[in-house]
Design brief:
heterodimer; A: about 110 residues; mainly beta; 3-stranded antiparallel β-sheet; globular; B: about 120 residues; 6-stranded mixed β-sheet; 4-stranded antiparallel β-sheet; 10 strands
Amino acid sequence: DIVLTQSPGTLSLSPGEGATLSCRTSQSVSSSSLSWYQQKPGQAPRLLMYAASSRATGIPARFSGSGSGTDFTLTISGLEPEDFAVYYCKQYGASTGYTFGQGTKLEIK
Amino acid sequence: QVQLVQSGAEVEKPGASVKISCKASGYAFTNYLIHWVRQAPGQGLEWMGVINPNNGDTDNAQKFRGRVTLTRDTSTTTVYMELSSLTFEDTAIYYCARERGGNWWFDPWGQGTLVTVSS
C-alpha cells in the first residue's frame, strides 16, 4: 500500500507569512492523481489543488502546488486569517484506491 | 449550483446497520462517480468506496469489503451508503463526494452525516 506522510504535523505561523506543506508518498505516484484539500473546523473538506499543481475553481492565487514522483508541496504565500485550517493530500492508486495523508494543521502563531 | 446534500445524524447500537443518503443536484447525475469518505472524531480522512451512478458498479476499500453496500436511485439522483455490523469504532462523520471518472479529485463534498454508535 502507498503511504502518504505529511509534514509538519502542525505549523504555527502569523498572517502575512508564507507556508510550505509537504506530502511524501512511499512510492512514486502520478502527479495527475495527487490533490490537496482544506478542512476548517465543523466543515467538509474543500478541494484546493488537483493534478498536483492546478488550482480548483475559486481558489486564490496565493495557493500553489508543485512536485512529482514522491515529493509534493503545497505553498501558501501571504497567509490570510481564513487560511488557518487542516490540509490533506490525497492520491489514487489502481491497486489501493484512494489514500489520504494524515493532515497538517496550520495554526495561528 | 452543484450540490450534494446528505441525510441527518444517526444513532445506532453496536451490531446494527446504518443507511445514509446523498442527494445530488445541479449536474448530470450519471456522469460523475460518488465516493464515500469518513472521519472519526479528531482524526483524518479515510476513503471507503465509490459507486458509478451510470451502471451501479462499485469498488470498496479492502477494509470495508463485506460491510459497505453502495447503491443508487437514478430517478431521485440519490446515492446510498449502508454500513453493517457497526462497532464503536464506526462513530464518525461520513461524507459523500463527487468525482468525474478518471480525474481522481473530489469536488464538491456533501456536508457530512454524523453516525454515533452507542449502546
